[in-house]
Amino acid sequence: MLKKILYENTIQNFLFLFILIIFLPALHIFINKTINNNTYIFIYGNLNLPINQTLFFIIFTVFTSISAFLLYYFNYNFNETFSRILPSFSFIILINYLPINHIKPINFLILPILIELINILFNAYNQEKVYKYLFNFSFLTSISSFINFNFIFIILTLYLWLILFRTYNIREYILPLVGLIIPYLIIDTVTFIFSGQTNFFSILFNRINFNGDYHPEFSIIILFLIFIFLIYNFLKFRHHLKKVKNRKYNTWIIFSTALLWILYFILHEQIIVLSIIVFMSFLLTINLTIFEKPFFSKLFFISLLLLNLVVFLFNI
Fold first, then answer.
1. SS3 assignment, position 192
2. pLDDT per residue of the chain (316 residues) written in tens, 0 to 9
């Protein structure tokens, strides 16, 4: 079974993945009756959404399933020796470490967008001109920040990509800023037409939240320790990766994840934690394939699943 999960694509894999998506989260959501239905969209201000446990579970299941499918679909650009579905397993295992019912449901909408952003940079590899990729990345990031403004910090991972993959070109550094600003200018223009007021800069500077309320200490400690182990293991066995592209992109993923951890410790924002999990799912996938002996890959995979149960019991 584990061999099929790690190295093959089968119907049984998809069924097992679906069980992972719904089983522990369902137990957590319905055992813990407190649901975080407060959300924030900067265009409208603070909203209290009438979300019960069932609707929350549906939102979580739908958008995590979409995210898992996108990871499977986009893994074609990142595939080496493992099965294409393995990043999806990695993503679900990692997200199950969080107390799901404490997450604002609106943040789940951003997960598929983040995976698409990473895929944009995968497709930009070895392209002579990357202007359209840079603009698409920054423009989509800006649109997503309408849901949660703190997501705008994901643009920093794009600049890390430019540093690691491109020779210095001032236009490539300026273009992402243009892509970020355009959606806000459009909103500002519409606001001026209908109300005669402009509030672009007040929105821009007042929506950064340095007092986030997301502090699941035990889950965060577990995820951070896994990240440290993944870095150590990758640095030790990275020579097993045959593709130069994979080695380079894993270096970018490590630096990006480290940057996101720093941002989390500053902002304590849920969307930052979810972004960390998406990046770590790629890193975990590679780590599951570079052990010298397949036995260690299987043992590590089983350990992560068992740790899911431990964290679940701790969080209920």
1. helix
2. 555 555 555 556 666 666 766 766 766 666 665 665 555 555 545 555 667 777 788 888 888 888 888 888 777 655 554 566 788 888 888 998 888 777 888 888 899 999 999 999 988 887 888 999 999 999 999 999 888 888 899 999 999 999 988 888 899 999 999 999 898 888 877 777 776 666 655 555 555 555 555 656 788 888 999 999 888 887 777 666 666 667 778 889 999 999 999 999 888 888 899 999 999 998 888 887 777 677 777 788 888 888 887 877 776 5
Domain membership of residue 111 (yes or no) is yes
Which structural domain range is residue 261 located in? Answer: 2-127+214-315
Residue type, 71: L
The answer for 92, left when phi > 0, alpha when psi is -120 to 50, beta otherwise, is: alpha
Residue 101 DSSP symbol: G
Q: Name which of 310, 224, 206 is nearest 273 in CA terms.
A: 224
pTM: 0.87
Residue 145 falls inside a structural domain: no
The domain total for the chain is: 1
In a domain, 292, yes or no: yes
Contacts of 291 (CB under 8 A, 6+ apart): 233, 237, 297, 300
Is 182 within a domain? no
Side-chain half-sphere CA neighbours of 122 within 13 A:
20
